[in-house]
């Protein structure tokens, strides 16, 4: 996981960008992130009733 420092105008760029294998986890839909990690052979427990 790579955390990039803030860049540019706050209206255009997030204050923090968190990348997981190149995916911005704050801007990429959750189903795409989960599909990506599944392709990598990992899994995420999603039995939390509060999870989207």
List the helices and strands and how they pair.
Layout: E1 2-4, E2 17-20, E3 23-24, H1 30-39
Antiparallel strand pairs: 1-2, 2-3
In short:
The protein is 19% helix and 17% strand. With 52 residues, the protein is α+β, with helices and mostly antiparallel strands.
Describe the fold and architecture.
This protein has 52 residues and is α+β, with helices and mostly antiparallel strands. The chain contains one helix and three strands, in the order βββα. It has one helix at residues 30-39, and strands at residues 2-4, 17-20, 23-24. It has a three-stranded antiparallel β-sheet, with no helix packed on it. The longest helix is centred in the middle third of the chain and has 10 residues, at 30-39. It is globular and about 30 Å long.
